[in-house]
Amino acid sequence: MQQKSLSACTTILVGKKASLDGSTMIARNDDTFHAVAPHKFEYHQPQTGQKGQIVKSWLNGFQAQVPEDSYGWPGVPNVDYKHEGYYDESGINTKNVAMSATESTYGNERALAYDPLVKDGLDEDCIVRMVLPYVDSAKAAVQRTGALIAQYGSPAGNSVLFSDKNDVWYMEIVTGHHWVAQRIPDDAYVIAANRVSIQQVDFDNPSEFMWSDGIQNFVADNHLNTDSQGWNFRHIFGTNNQKDRHYNNPRVWFGQRYFNPEIQQDPEDGELPFICRTNHKISVDDIEYILGSHYNETPYDPLQSSETHEKYLYRPIGLNRTQNSHVLQIRNNVPDEYAAIMWLCLGYPTFSPYLPFYTNMNDTAPSYNDTSMHFNLKDAYWLYKGMSVLVESHYKEFIQGNIDFLTECRRQFRAVVAQTDQAANKYHGQELTEFLTKQNQALVQTNQTQTLQYMGELMTQGINLSKLTFDMDKNL
């Protein structure tokens, strides 16, 4: 449990009118405590009439029965789940409902004194399995999660992302039983990073907010509202400490700085806004850049060549211990049958590509779903991790080549998506699922070949960069 409880992620949410093509998008880096924690990408088939099924946590005493009918969905769990828990992390079900869980979030000691965390409650290791296969909208996903927290309690502070083609919701579970969820406005975006983020809650607007039963009385009875006016969820339940100022707030600052460079803000400011708007239409590329960022082109970049105190002051967004990074996109400009794409990166998001997977699939490629616990280049996890290590080993010399490699990957991926969309009109039902599955797996094979070739180039260049060299007579 400790390994994941010390984990920390970064979240981005985008409403459909804020995006470049009218998509809703939810995205997150899955960051773990250890740099090596192999993950796989697998597909769970839909089920009907499967009575008595139990979801069991390998980390605490939680277990619960689930409904007998479920939708199909892909997940990105740990390989060693019996020691580390499932942690499926993210997926989009066959109803085009997306879920990403969780962003570790820390409630303050005042609130936790009156509603402590529940040791054997529903934690992030099982939350995707308990919710995503059984919901047909983002709002229904919030409601099911809230009902489960009311029934079983939560052993940790967790924030959860949900979306469908119309709605994006962000839910913050801050004590054993209390939570608030806010619908992200269609024309807005959000950056969140390991602290309570939601601000003013409007209890007269249930279409935009949802909350745990009795939360207003809980706050009033225990004198938790520190503001003389308003009902600021961040102030009531959140923290504002040194860790926030150096570990959490700067990541939010950098994301907002990227989308709104015209606004001057302090990286350590604890009042950075939750709901944000920009004149820039947000693309998948933008989200990938932020999720792989390390305070690029600022004094806080740890990869800069000069040695300064500032370069190590703040925790970057993209890390070596990011086990997977994902953008869950539900498009509104194509038919529902192939509208959902899961952009998945299994290497460092700073140096590795995000492959687009149509989630109307019936399987994933063996290099993704059969991951070894130890280094093996046949596995996507190890392939992209290995490539990332090579790039960082000679960052100054390799970074431009890596930028060129990722740029070409993005070009190819978008061309493949456009071609697949056009061809998909010929298929329906199971034939369409088979076609999209084959397209996914063909892209995996193509990029695997390209990445191995690129790694060979890096290794060859690296040989010539060795310090074990000297100017020598050509005849020696």
TrEMBL record:
GO terms for biological process: proteolysis. It catalyses: an L-aminoacyl-L-amino acid + H2O = 2 an L-alpha-amino acid. Keywords: Dipeptidase, Hydrolase, Protease. This is Dipeptidase. Its EC number is 3.4.-.-. GO terms for molecular function: cysteine-type exopeptidase activity; dipeptidase activity. It comes from the Bacteria. InterPro entries: C69_dipept_A-like (IPR047804), Peptidase_C69 (IPR005322). It holds the Pfam family Peptidase_C69. It is an enzyme of class 3 (hydrolase). Belongs to the peptidase C69 family.
